[in-house]
């Protein structure tokens, strides 16, 4: 079972697709069994489908695995990205203690698009 919810800092688009497929299979099984009321995850399914539909149009790598970053986590993501590409030193050394990471994250977001998952913004390239 895939876990995808609006409280995760980072999502993978393939996990979103997997969860949608799981929920659709559960819904279809309930309908085929003649018990459509047994499927209680309709709101989750609708939210994930709307999220996928909104993001997929702007995201050419959706089917291959796009990283989706929660808005409230984007500053930390920017710091991790700076570490990963080697442009940030130790946090306790000048000039890295002087960097305005809020501004750095905002500037990085200019290269990203966003989509809403149940009222929460996620960013992707």
Outline the structure in words.
- With 125 residues, the protein is an alpha+beta fold.
- The chain has one domain (10-124).
- The protein has helices at 13-32, 42-56, 62-65, 74-84, 101-109; strands at residues 10-12, 67-70, 113-117, 120-124.
- It is elongated.
What is the overall number of helices?
5
Identify the strand order in the major beta sheet.
1-2-4-3
The end-to-end distance, rounded to whole angstroms, is: 26 Å
> What is the SS-derived class?
alpha+beta
Task: Summarize model confidence as the mean pLDDT.
Answer: 92
Q: Work out the number of β strands.
A: 4
| Beta-strand percentage range | 5-15%
Rg (C-alpha, Å):
18 Å
Extract low-pLDDT stretches: none
Total individual domains: 1
- Helicity, as a percent range: 40-55%
The backbone outline, from C-alpha atoms, is elongated
Write the layout of secondary structure elements.
Elements: E1 10-12, H1 13-32, H2 42-56, H3 62-65, E2 67-70, H4 74-84, H5 101-109, E3 113-117, E4 120-124
Antiparallel strand pairs: 1-2, 2-4, 3-4
Helix pairs in contact: 1-2, 4-5
What is the gist of this entry?
The chain has 5 helices and 4 strands.
């Amino acid at each position: 079972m895939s876990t995808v919810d609006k409280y995760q800092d980072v999502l993978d688009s393939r996990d979103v697709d997997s969860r949608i497929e799981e929920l659709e299979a559960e819904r279809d099984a309930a309908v085929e069994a003649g018990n459509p009321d047994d499927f209680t995850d309709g709101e989750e399914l609708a939210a994930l489908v709307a999220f996928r539909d909104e993001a997929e149009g702007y995201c050419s790598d959706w089917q291959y695995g796009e990283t989706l970053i929660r808005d409230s986590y984007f500053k930390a993501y920017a710091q991790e990205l700076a570490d990963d590409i080697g442009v940030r030193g130790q946090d306790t050394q000048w000039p890295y203690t002087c960097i305005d990471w809020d501004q750095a994250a905002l500037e990085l977001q200019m290269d990203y698009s966003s989509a809403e998952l149940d009222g929460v913004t996620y960013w992707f390239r």
